[in-house]
Amino acid sequence: MEERIKNFYDLEAWRKAHQLVLEIYKITKFFPKEELYGIISQLCRAACSITANIAEGFARYHFKDKIRFYYQARGSVAEVQNFLILAKVTSYCLLVTKIKKHLLEAEAFLLP
């Protein structure tokens, strides 16, 4: 029997994005401290925005509202991709390929 989705955290998209957030927080611990208010802050906020928008979209009643928040989450995925590219080219993070798996999984649920 299929499980019914009752809460946003039952959504596979939210779960995948949540894993991404946890990985982002793990890797940013190793970034230079001078980036605390730069790329670290931006990357963590963008990653958290993915799950927050999925949760808010889930709670909306009207379909157009739901879609708007899911599109916002998709935009946040692109923002995270941007900061991960920056982290990779600045050599702040050599673990980008590990994170990329989580990013692609989260993104897959947000594509039309």
Write a structural description.
With 112 residues, the protein is an all-alpha fold. The chain has one domain: 23S rRNA-intervening sequence (de novo design (two linked rop proteins), Up-down Bundle). The chain has four helices and no strands.
Provide a quick synopsis of the model.
The protein has helices at residues 12-28, 36-59, 63-89, 96-110. By secondary structure, it is an all-alpha fold. It starts with 11 loop residues before the first helix and ends with a helix.
Biggest sheet, open or closed, and with what strands and sense? none
DSSP strand count: 0
Question: Could you spell the SSE succession in H and E letters?
Answer: HHHH
Rg to the nearest angstrom?
15 Å
The appropriate CATH architecture is Up-down Bundle
The end-to-end distance, rounded to whole angstroms, is 27 Å
Structural class, by secondary structure, is mainly alpha
Annotated CATH homologous superfamily: 23S rRNA-intervening sequence
> What is the molecular shape?
elongated
What's the mean pLDDT score?
88
CATH topology: de novo design (two linked rop proteins)
Fraction of helical residues: over 70%
Strand content: under 5%
Q: Note poorly predicted spans.
A: none
**Domains (count):** 1
What's the CATH class label?
Mainly Alpha
Number of helices: 4
